[in-house]
Each structure stands twice: as structure tokens, then as C-alpha cells.
Amino acid sequence: MTRPNTYRSGPDERGHFGIYGGRFVAETLMPLILEVEKAYKEAKADPAFEGGIREHLKQYVGRPNPLYYAERLTEKLGGAKIYFKREELNHTGAHKINNCIGQILLARRMGKKRIIAETGAGQHGVATATVCALFDMPCVIYMGETDIARQQPNVFRMKLLGAEVVPVTSGARTLKDAMNEALRDWVTNVSDTYYLIGTAAGPHPYPAMVRDFQSVIGDEVRVQMQELEGRLPDSLVACVGGGSNAIGLFHPFLDDPSVKMVAVEAAGHGIDKGPLAHAASITGGRPGVLHGNRTYLLQDEDGQILEGHSISAGLDYPGVGPEHSWLHDIGRVEYVSATDQETLDAFQLCARTEGIIPALESAHALAEIVKRAPKLPKDHLMVLCLSGRGDKDIFSVAQHLGVKL
Amino acid sequence: MSAPKDNGRIAKRFAALKAEGRAGLVTFITAGDPDLETCRAVLHGLPAAGADLIELGLPFSDPMADGPAIQAASLRALHAGTTARKTLDLVRGFRATDADTPVILMGYYNPIHAYGVDRFLADAIAAGVDGLIVVDLPPEEDEELCIPALKAGVNFIRLATPTTDDKRLPAVLQNTSGFVYYVSIAGITGTASADNAAVGAAVDRLKRHTDLPVAVGFGIKTPEQAADVARVADAAVVGSAIVTRLADGLDAEGKARPGLAEDVLGFVRELAGGVRGARV
Q1: Does the pLDDT at position B132 exceed 70?
Q2: Confidence of residue B2 (pLDDT cuts 50, 70, 90)
Q3: Which residues are annotated as modified residue N6-(pyridoxal phosphate)lysine in the UniProt record (chain A) (predicted)?
Q4: Which of A81, A112, B149, B251 has the most CB atoms lying inside 10 A of its own CB?
Q5: Which of A24, A29, A305 sits opposite B141 (nearest CB)?
Q6: Does the beta carbon of A4 lie under 8 angstroms from any beta carbon of chain B?
Q7: B57 in contact with A, Cβ within 8 Å
Q8: Minimum distance, in Å, between the CA of residue B112 and any CA atom of chain A
């Protein structure tokens, strides 16, 4: 494979990152997908659109959030100098809102009257319900029944924000089934509905569009690290389910060869424990086609999609954004994984050392830092994307620790 | 691809229907639903019950364009151990008893992708498959399977929908062969039904763009509705209603009750009666 001049030019016109991506959707949806693509292309060229996003991110979301030197964790691990990109300080407590602001402004430009979305852990559902309240648009969130049971606080948040939460009872009743159900809604309500996808996956142009909206993470890190240290970071670490916080952090640095990037998938009970024990699509899956794109998937020999497992409801999706699949194949980003146990340990370490309760998703990235930082020199600048806060997770963590709340 | 003369079973069947002056009945069942043996009994009985063309669903874990009836059918089939290979075995068995009734596999791309496109096409042809309907392969992705299928001599039947406007229609029809499947509603299978006037107008619109036969499906549940469609289209497709009839014949454990296949075929006979009586 020849090395491209830039890693940042993708996707091509048909939505391909190498062999990944594409537009694998039913004909009923195809005209809508093309409409979204056209509208997004026009919006990107309109300074007023960009200005609207910037204004909302500043005044409503609270950006820029800090690039925080995690001094105690750095001392404890005794190696690399660790910075946290504090996405958990955003309004609604995660990076998901960055994308929701961008997409709802696009939906308004397109004249859409109704918003639908899928959610797993509920973070994207909450962020979507939030922007729908802000812009006074009806909002329907599809959420698997299994996830509803384990993420009650977020379900209530969405309802408080005025959203309708529809329990999904098909399949395994988790995120992939919620996405199936959202697609079924969209195909039925094509004329007035906008599907606000929560991660950098799905049919083109969603993977590229969500990446663009999340790239504010990496753009800020670039500026902030220059101010703090006068140079680029040496490595970036982020968790990957669908992969939107990771691609948002990585993308602005892809063409800086000195910056190493590590993405952490959910190894659940362990990748060696079989295909149902983890949710690591890249580390433990193979390429296939689902939800509009070709990408790495958890699937059996016959191409049936398998249910991933992770302690984190936000990572147990059986696929991953197509750009990640490509970045993996060409070797620009290293894909590793962290088990449930490693994650729980890192979760507690972060809480006690830095006074920050991280989301279980982000704790996967922390687990990798715990392994990696001690082996690196003290002048190695490492950035972790602290993609969300862990308040939503305290009940499931308590359960795993054997504590009754 | 300007279609060379199509001598396949699908083209022959539509030519025969035209000669008879009637529309056809296309029936859908999911391969391996509720189990391979019962499915085989239904499949083999379909032509005698009046099915003119057979769509056999290739089960998939995530059928995102399907409503609850066909979702449940897919899951039953998968729980019964149905695979792409076993689906092709069903077709092979059917073909040994019926040389003329076209069989079209309908499903989603990933099981075919996992099987390997070239190997799948070779095995499908050897089994006696005549056409493919792959819901999540729009013309934008023709290089994946559509073009290889056409080259291998398998019809690739495309769905046209209410959202497919005149500007887009030529792209949708370009590599379509066998027939065009008009999805009469914007929605999933087995839910709402379209009104007759809208279906008639849609078929007329398609006919202005293509000489291929037009089959209409989604939301046809009764012999009367099938007859209505048969008056304006070349064929009526019934899927969810047949699959629901089959599901109604399962016991509490999901096993087929005695006489289930005969009951399903009885329903197909009623549908065929509706279609055949439509234009007299």
C-alpha cells in the first residue's frame, strides 16, 4: 500500500475511506442520504453555518474546555506527562453534544421538522434531546430495552428534556437494534424527519460529517498544547465504540507524523474469551456491511451480526466508524483494547487520584494510559480524551464492585 | 448495461403471464422459517397453490428495512440454524421438483459478503437461483454485487420507491433486470398499505421509464388487495401476510403445529384466486 500524501482528504465522493464506508442503504433512504450530503456540502461552504456552530459551542456547550495537566496521575504512573482533554465538562457531560449542535443546525437549514436518534448508554440521546429542547423540535429517541434497564438516569433525563424514548424490543435490545429501529422510523417518515446519528458511522456523509463536528476536540488540543508546552503532543489516546471522540481528537493530527495515536476498544471479559465476550470490532472482528457502511464488524461465519459485550453501554456496538477501519489497515492509528476489569481499575484510579469520575467509556482509554505511560520518558506529552463524565455509570460500577446503593 | 435478450426463468414466466392476460403472484417466505422441514414443505407446495414467482428470504440478524413480521421470521430461521448454505440447499431441493418457477433470493448484503460474492453467485446459479433482491445495495454500490451478478447471469432486481423521483429513476433502472419491484409505501414491510390510485400512477410512471415487468409489494395483506394491485401491475408481491399466517400456526414453543404448511398454502391459494380473478 502506498502512503498517501495526506490522511485527511477522505472520504472520496462516494464516501469511501479506502475500501470502507459507502452508502449501503435501502432505496427509500437513498434520496435522503443524498439530500443530507448536498445540504452538508452547502452548509460547510457557508460562513454563517460555521459561525452558528462556533457561537453555540462557546455560549451553550462551554467550549473550549480545558486541556488539563493530570499531575497526580502523571506522578503516580511515573512516566509520560499526561493531559486530559476535558470533554466531560461540556454541557450534558460528554463530547456527544459537539456533533448534536452541528447536526441540528443542519436539520434546521434543511427545513426538517422532527428529529430521531439512536442511543446506547444514553449520552447521545441526552445530547440530542437537549438540542431538540433548545431548538423546539420534536424528538424521538430509540433505545434498546436492555440499555434502558441499565441506564435509567439518562432515560429520565431525556424525558425531562421533552423527548419521547421508545424502547426497542427487537434483536438483542441494545444499540445496534436501536439503530435498526431508527432507520425503520426514517424510512417511514422520509418527508419531515432528520436522523441525527450519534457516531462517526452509518452511510456517507455521516462518518465524515460527525468527524468534522467532533474535530473541534483535536483542533483545540492543538492550540492548547502549543500554549502550554510550545509544541505538538507526542501521543493521543481515546476510546472507540463507534469512534466519534477518537476521530475528533485524531483527525487534526493525522498528518503530523510525530504524533502517535492509540485507540482503545472494549475487550469486555477478554478478546480470547470468544466472539460474544467483547465489543472490539477491529481487534476481534472482520470487515462486513451493516448500517450503511463497510467496516469491521463482530459477526459469525455466516455474516450474522453478533452482540458485543462491554461493561460500558456506549461501547458495545458491533461495528466501528469506517475511517477507523481504514486508519487501522494503513497502520496510522494503533488499535488496542482494555477489559472490563482493567477499565474498572482505571475508573477508580482516576476518581481517587484526580477527583474526576470518568465515564466507563473514557475509562477504557485511561486503562491504556496506565499500561503505557510508565514506560515512556517524562517529556513525552500524552493526551487522553476524557470523553464523558461517569455520573451515569455509578450504579453499574457499584454493582460490579458489589456495593448496594 | 443494455440488456441482451433475457432467457431466464423470470423473463419466461412474465412472458407467459402476459400471454395469459393476467398478473402474477409473487410470494415471500423466509428460508428456514420456522424450521427447514416446514419451510421445505411450504416452498415445494407454492407453485401448486398459485405462486407464480417465489421470493425466498435469506435470513439476516439485522433486517432494518423489515417490519415486525419478517424480523421475527428471520430470527426464527436463524434460531433454527438456517445459513446461506442451507438456504441454497433449499433452492436446490426445490429446483429438483420444479424446473420453471423462478426463485429469487431476497435479503441483505452482509451474509453474501461473508460468503464471498463470486462463490455465492456460482453456488446460487448451481442451486437454481434466478434473481437477487438485496435491500441495502442501491445503484451507488452496483460494483459490489449487481454487476458481478449480471455478468454471471443472475437477475438483479431493484426496488423503486415513492422517494425514487423521475430524476433518479434511470439510475435505479439502469442495471435492473428480471423485473422492477415497486415498494408502494415509504416504510418497512408489512405495515401500511398504499391506496390504489397512487399505485396505479406509480406503475404508469415506471412504465414510462422501462419495458421490464413491474411487481408491486409492501402492505398487501388480503386477496382483495392483491386483486387491486393485479389490476394495475404485472405482479403483486405478498410477504408479511404469508409470514404472519405461518407465525399464527406455531405453538407456544415456536414449533410448527400439524397442518401448518397446508394452512399457509391455503392462504396462498386465496391470494392466487384474488390475483387470477382480478382482470376478468
Answers
A1: yes
A2: very low
A3: 96
A4: B149
A5: A24
A6: no
A7: no
A8: 7
Q: How far apart are alpha carbons B55 and B43 in whole angstroms? A: 10
Q: Which of residues 238-297 of A touch B (CB under 8 A)?
A: 288-292, 294, 297
**Chain A partners of B83 at a C-beta cutoff of 8 Å?**
302
Residues B192 and B213: beta-carbon distance below 8 Å: no
Cα of first residue to Cα of last residue in chain A, in angstroms, is 54
Cα-based torsion angle of the residue sequence A56, A61, A62, A67 in order, rounded to the nearest 10 degrees: -120
The complex's ipTM works out to: 0.95
Question: Amino acid identity of A4?
Answer: P
What is the DSSP pairing of strand A67-69 with strand A81-85?
A: antiparallel
Residue B206 C-alpha, separation from nearest chain A C-alpha, in angstroms = 15
Give A-chain residues touching B63 at CB under 8 angstroms.
180
Q: What is the pLDDT of residues A74-97, one digit of tens each?
A: 999 999 999 999 999 999 999 999
Q: Does position A45 have pLDDT exceeding 60, yes or no?
A: yes
B140·A183 Cβ contact <8 A: no
Return the domain boundaries, chain B: 9-274
Taking only the tens place, the pLDDT of each residue in B233-267 is 999 999 999 999 999 999 999 999 999 999 999 99
Q: Spelled out in words, what is the top-level CATH class assigned to the domain B9-274?
A: alpha beta
What are the chain B neighbours of A299 within 8 Å (beta carbons)? 110, 114
Question: How, if at all, do strands A235-239 and A193-195 pair?
Answer: unpaired
Which of chain A's residues have a Cβ under 8 Å away from the Cβ of B119?
none
The DSSP element (H or E) to which A369 belongs, if any, is helix A360-372
pLDDT digits (tens, 9 = 90+) for A228-275: 999 999 999 999 999 999 999 999 999 999 999 999 999 999 999 988
